Fold:
Amino acid sequence: MSKKVVKEKIILGLDPGTNVMGYGIILVKSVDLTLLQFGVIHLSKLESHELRLKKIFDRVLSILEEFSPDEVALEAPFYGKNVQSMLKLGRAQGVAMSAALSRGIPIVEYAPKKVKQSVTGNGNASKEQVAKMLMTIFKFKETPKLMDATDALAVALCHHYQNGADKGKKKSWASFAKENPGRVK
Structure:
């Protein structure tokens, strides 16, 4: 009699920011979900944007080394009116992506509405509604002070939920680059 192999996967969810960056790590084992860790990386005390980007890179690398995730999911920046803020947010996201890519880990991005829809069933849900749903799913008692942590956890969960629905689609920057060498230099 052969044993059935249960696939395990660790997913790191990131909510990029320039003052606070959220992260959430989940373990998927068959149909069971386990919260491994979630929290925030505080960046606001660092004086320059460059130092903040370095801290993002270093902390994401340390999380990757500690948990060895199989995949990284990021919340894509939403479009705001302040061009400078968008530029800084895009840089923060790019640095987080670079850390994952430097370790060969596939990356997927999700729009904020997609994350909320996946977790709560409502793409316009509030951060508090998302946090309450996560508390129910992962059975933790208290929401963190900063919702960036639950936002990142929601991104990881969204990625897990989307995994089955997106079979056959390009799932990472690495696979996109490999499949489209003429479009990436």
About this structure: The CA atoms of residues 177 and 184 lie 6 Å apart. The beta strands are 8-15, 20-29, 32-42, 71-75, 107-110. Confidence is low (pLDDT under 50) at residues 165-171.
